[in-house]
Amino acid sequence: MSEQLALLGGQPTIRHDFQPYNPYGGEEAEAARLVIEGGALSCFLGTWSDGFYGGPHVQAFERAWEKAFDIPHAVAVNSATSGLIAAVGALEVEPGAEVIVSPWTMSATAAAILVWNGIPVFADIEPETFGMDPEAIERRITPRTQAIVVTDIFGHAARLGEIMDIAARHGLKVVEDAAQAPAAVCERGLVGTVADIGVYSLNYHKHIHTGEGGVCVTRDPALAERMQLIRNHAEAVVADKHVSSLANLIGFNFRLGEIEAAMGREQLRKLKGLAATRTRVGTALTAHLGNLEGLRVPVVRPGCTHVYYVYGVVLDRSVVEIPRERILDALRAEGVPAAHAGYTNIHLLPIFQQRIAYGRHGFPWSGGFYEGEVSYERGTCPVAEALHARTLIALHTCLHRFSDEEVDLVGHAFRKVWNQLEQLR
Ligand SMILES: *Cc1c(COP(=O)(O)O)cnc(C)c1O
């Protein structure tokens, strides 16, 4: 006999608030204290000078990142959003050029394309690990396509091998948004280091953070230089630095502070261990939920690891007829935290539906630079849309610590609800 569901008046499975996920310790506090005592909180100068590449902590952080990710160039920035803007700009994306991007990412991934007046073209995701479907990408390629921005969503690599092969066949550049998957591995190496440029986030909500921050990586010294220029007032520097190609060298201030860089180095030392804690949470959840009927647990492809920024499960509608929202209500009533219905559909945001980005008159879709016919209609990404609307339940595993005992409790709560799904009718 099962216990009464909490939603129907029974006792909840979980009766305490889970601790927030917190990757910080005394090392970061000490690193920050030393910078503050020295007084030099940012040493960047927006001129071609010794200060152009930032202060000692920023540069030490970059060298440490390069070593940890085994890649020759790391460029620290003040957010992954900044990093994505720098990356797309560095690829010399032209106004009106199409850039293929996922509907399942953060809005910033697509906005970074618009910043350079490129045209985001959304390619549907595949239902296994929710990365862009290589076949959908290929269908979206036109003579106007210049680049692909691929997101390693939820903590698992997109199908990067196939995507890089498609890009090579069509002469396209690729940016990898690895904000949710630092330290994850795929068949071609560390996530974020596979494409022409990779971008990591150091935002508070990610595996490791500096409050706000980000890092771009590349093997191409020319791309690294363009990102360094865009980071730091390019237009004011190009003459003295004798830069010949001026394409997209409008500079921003994307500079990371010295305190953040010093803390970032400490965080980087902990990255592998912290990512392993999320892998442990995800693996333990799968042990609990793997045999619930009509529930598909996350897929980990051969040769890949999953660092579970989000633990996403999918309802099989041919088995489970109870509406997802009703199931979520039951799980929440049992005390399961951080559980959300669906994920996102960036192509359906007002900016794309109404094509209002720069000014009121449809630029950059209108105005003479863009000659294609991109569609943002509902139905252009059917897999993403159906998962979001009806079948995905996303547990945000980077929001809480999720001790072993708490993971067990979440598992019990799911099993309790699943044993009594009929009661939810
Ligand atoms: C968090 C996130 C970003 C943005 O990172 P910020 O550092 O907050 O700018 C971009 N892309 C994805 C997939 C993210 O999850």
How does this model look, in words?
This protein has 425 residues and is α/β, with parallel strands linked by helices. Helix content is 37%, strand content 12%. It contains 13 helices and 13 strands. A 7-stranded mixed sheet has the order 1-9-8-5-4-2-3, sandwiched between helices. A 4-stranded antiparallel sheet has the order 10-11-13-12. The protein has a two-stranded antiparallel sheet with strand order 6-7. Helix 3 (80-90) crosses helix 4 and helix 9 packs across helix 13 (404-419). The model has no long low-confidence stretch (mean pLDDT 97). Pyridoxal-5'-phosphate binds next to helix 3 and helix 4.
Summarize, please.
By secondary structure, this protein is of the alpha/beta class. Helices cover 37% and strands 12% of the residues. The protein has a seven-stranded mixed β-sheet, sandwiched between helices. Strands 10-11-13-12 form a four-stranded antiparallel β-sheet. The chain has a two-stranded antiparallel sheet with strand order 6-7.
**Mean pLDDT reading:** 97
Order of helices and strands: HHEHEHEHEHEEEEEHHHEEHEHHEH
Going across the biggest sheet, name each strand in turn: 1-9-8-5-4-2-3
Largest sheet: 7 strands, mixed
Could you say which structural class the secondary elements and strand pairing correspond to?
Answer: alpha/beta
According to DSSP, the number of beta strands is 13
- N-C termini distance: 19 Å
Q: Rounded to an integer, what's the Rg over CA atoms?
A: 23 Å
Specify the overall morphology.
Answer: globular
**What percentage of the residues does DSSP assign to strands (E)?**
5-15%
Low-confidence stretches: none
Q: Report helical residue fraction.
A: 25-40%
